[in-house]
Design goal:
Shape: globular
CATH architecture: 5 Propeller
CATH class: Mainly Beta
Distance between the termini: 35 Å
Structural class: mainly beta
Order of helices and strands: HEEEEEEEEEEEEEEEHEEEEEEEE
Number of strands: 23
């Protein structure tokens, strides 16, 4: 978690410095498609969901409540948890209790019914795991699920795991922080117990990252299942906007036109950058995106981060 906060802060600094009141120099963004029926149009929800918060991790339960896991921006840095009936108004969060994870969105149910949660261990430079039979109480599995590939150069950033249409467990992760800092893929065919490197440059941005620097790659990836084996992958670029890629089989990701939201989407807030998009499906079938956002602040003021959201129109 600490590494991710440092990464988010570094991204903001790269956009102009944490103490500046100047807007992020995002420049012109590509035009958005006039196709709301495709699920590509998100409208910023007014206000903030949680103040002084980062790393939102939402989960929608069977009753339509949104369980939001997040991290406090200010010391002491704590993992927090709050529940909202409408997904827009959250009460004051409480410190997360690790003994019950039944609502945590990063649980992954293996094809054999076992639940697993995967974690990056910087001491071993590897992914480890915990497992559960009921999806609530998890125990350490021991050992290593995935050691870094040599092209990752000793670093892994954000990672996510899901089961694809062929019953494989797919891991998408960021590697090579000070080089390409782009998306790689590893695959498990044994219920998430061992992963093998599949390929790098998943989103085809290695060339631009190599020529212009790691800040030009797509990062902060999280995906959501659609119909069949299709998935939509949401990513951030340079803190300016959230983009999406579509896959029909989990193997090839094709970028969709335009962007889903940008720092200009919130007219009631002055945003400096956007990070960590996570999308959930609402009871009415629509999707909602939760993100961390950095607010513009007077020179010399500390970094101010909040959780915001965006929802397609009814």
């Amino acid at each position: 978690m600490h590494l991710k906060i440092v990464s988010a802060f570094a991204a903001v600094v790269a956009l102009g410095g944490s103490g500046s009141a100047q807007l992020s120099p995002c420049g012109s963004l590509p035009a958005n498609p006039d196709d709301p029926g495709a699920g590509l149009t998100f409208v910023a929800d007014p206000g903030v969901r949680v103040d002084h918060a980062v790393l939102p991790k939402p989960f929608v339960d069977d009753e339509g409540r949104v369980h939001l896991f997040y991290q406090r921006e200010t010391p002491p840095i704590l993992d927090m948890y709050a529940v909202s009936a409408d997904g827009l108004t959250f009460p004051a969060g409480r410190e997360q209790q690790s003994s019950d994870l039944r609502y945590h969105p990063f649980r992954v149910r293996m094809p054999n019914g076992v639940w697993r949660m995967f974690s990056w261990d910087p001491r071993q430079l590897a992914i480890t795991s915990r497992s559960s039979g009921d999806g609530a109480s998890f125990g350490d599995d021991g050992g290593v699920r995935y050691p870094l590939h040599e092209s990752d150069r000793g670093w892994m950033g954000i990672h996510e795991e899901y089961v694809d249409g062929q019953g494989r467990v797919v891991m998408l992760y960021l590697g090579d922080r000070y080089g390409l800092n782009n998306l790689r893929r590893a695959v498990s065919v044994d219920q998430g117990w061992t992963f093998a490197f599949d390929r790098g440059d998943v989103l085809g941005d290695a060339a631009i990252a190599r020529d212009h620097g790691p800040g030009h790659a797509f990062v902060d990836q999280k995906s959501i299942a659609l119909d069949g084996a299709a998935r939509r992958l949401f990513v951030m670029k340079q803190g300016c906007a959230i983009y999406s890629f579509l896959t029909s089989d989990g193997d090839q990701y094709v970028q969709e036109p335009g962007w889903r939201v940008s720092i200009n989407s919130w007219t009631d807030l002055s945003l400096r950058s956007l990070h960590d998009p996570v999308v959930v499906r609402l009871p009415d079938g629509r999707f909602r995106m939760y993100l961390a956002a950095s607010l513009n602040a007077p020179a010399g003021s500390p970094l101010h981060q909040v959780v915001v959201s965006a929802t397609p129109p009814p």
